[in-house]
Structure formats: structure tokens, C-alpha cells
């Protein structure tokens, strides 16, 4: 296993039992989202993005009850040294995808969890028409929307059947230097 992937695994061991306002841990949420991506028959890159989309909460210490409001960009920046944009850009855009869906899909805003509602206002609230057009024109907007939907669904304990390390083959396959992974 590559050192960076091992570092990610260790980060989830050390910090993954924390919550950020949901009824599940960070690790449970991560594996649930990855499992939903697998069930949707997605690529290793999008499964990896689903697994790691909230890593910014783990690496950015904060006193905010619901986590770091900029965890999307913090996580994407951290991962970009070893993963390509097909992993990092859906992560970077997943909070904006929430804003987009709240703006264009009737009832979506009302269905958000308390933690998602809290972060929604801090992440910019509803998008203007211009922001909506700009978001949907992003190369990875569709993947970010898929990731956002898994983010919403991945909050039930019954879906947390696998340990974090079960998903490491997807990370290895998505790794930029996967041919040099040890």
C-alpha cells in the first residue's frame, strides 16, 4: 500500500470515530457513501471521492459543532497531491452541489439533515441563476451531484457493514502513481 493511502487510513483510525452533528461517525458516513457508489456501479475514482469527500473535516481541526464549513476545498486540496481531478473535483464541488440542488429541486432543502442545514447557510445558501449556470457547466458537476445525493443517503447505521480498509483497493486504483504503489 502506498504511504499516502496508508496515511489516509490512519487518519480515519485516529479521527474517524468523531461525529459532525449526524447520528453516525465520520468513518461510517464515508463507507456508506462509498458503498452507495459501488451499488451504483461507479468508477474507482468516484467511489474514492465518495469515501473521502469529508476528509476535510478530519484534517482541519475546528470548534464548530457541525465540522469545517470549507471541508470540501480543504479535503480536495489535501488529496490533489496524489489523486487526479476525477477524485478531487467532485469532492471540491459537493457542497456547491448541495446549494445547487436546494436551488433547483423542490423539497430538497426541506429534506436536509440539521448538520447539512447548518452548513448550507455558511456555504452560501441558495444559488442565483448565474451561480446555477456556472456550477452546472463545471466539468465534474454531474459527479458532484451524485456524490451529494450519496452524502444525503449515507447517514444510516445499517449501511456501515464494511471497515474503511475494505475500500482501499479503490483508492489504490485511483491513485495517480498507482503503478508505483507498494
3D structure, described in words:
The chain has 182 residues and is mainly α. Helix content is 59%, strand content 0%. The chain has helices at 3-15, 26-39, 44-52, 55-59, 71-79, 85-104, 114-122, 129-136, 141-153, 168-174. It starts with a helix and ends in an 8-residue tail after the last helix. The relative contact order is 0.21.
Kindly summarize this structure in a few lines:
This protein is mostly helical. Helices cover 59% and strands 0% of the residues.
For the sheet with most strands, the description reads: none
Structural class, by secondary structure, is mainly alpha
Order of helices and strands: HHHHHHHHHH
The tally of helices reads: 10
Number of strands: 0
Mean pLDDT: 88
Radius of gyration: 15 Å
What are the segments in which pLDDT stays under 50 over at least 5 consecutive residues?
178-182
Q: Strand percentage, roughly?
A: under 5%
Shape: globular
Distance between the termini: 5 Å
Helix content: 55-70%
Keywords:
59% helix; mainly alpha; single chain; disordered C terminus; 0% strand; 182 residues
Please render the helix and strand layout as text.
Layout: H1 3-15, H2 26-39, H3 44-52, H4 55-59, H5 71-79, H6 85-104, H7 114-122, H8 129-136, H9 141-153, H10 168-174
Helix pairs in contact: 2-3, 2-9, 3-6, 3-10, 5-6, 6-8, 6-9
Amino acid at each position: 500500500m502506498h504511504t499516502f493511502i496508508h496515511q489516509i487510513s490512519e487518519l480515519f483510525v485516529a479521527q474517524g470515530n468523531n461525529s459532525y452533528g449526524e447520528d453516525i461517525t465520520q468513518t461510517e458516513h464515508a463507507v456508506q457513501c462509498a458503498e452507495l457508489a459501488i451499488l451504483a456501479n461507479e468508477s474507482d475514482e468516484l467511489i474514492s471521492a465518495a469515501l473521502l469527500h469529508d476528509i476535510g473535516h478530519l484534517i482541519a481541526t475546528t470548534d464548530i459543532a457541525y465540522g469545517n464549513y470549507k471541508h470540501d476545498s480543504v479535503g480536495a486540496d489535501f488529496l490533489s497531491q496524489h489523486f487526479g481531478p476525477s477524485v478531487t473535483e467532485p469532492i471540491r464541488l459537493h457542497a456547491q452541489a448541495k446549494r445547487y440542488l436546494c436551488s433547483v429541486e423542490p423539497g430538497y432543502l426541506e429534506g436536509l439533515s440539521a448538520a447539512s442545514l447548518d452548513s448550507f447557510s455558511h456555504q452560501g445558501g441558495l444559488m442565483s441563476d448565474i451561480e446555477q449556470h456556472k456550477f452546472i457547466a463545471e466539468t465534474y458537476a454531474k459527479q458532484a451531484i451524485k456524490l451529494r445525493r450519496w452524502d444525503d443517503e449515507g447517514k444510516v447505521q445499517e449501511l456501515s457493514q464494511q471497515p474503511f480498509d475494505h475500500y482501499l483497493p479503490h483508492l489504490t486504483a485511483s491513485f495517480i502513481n498507482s503503478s508505483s504503489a507498494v
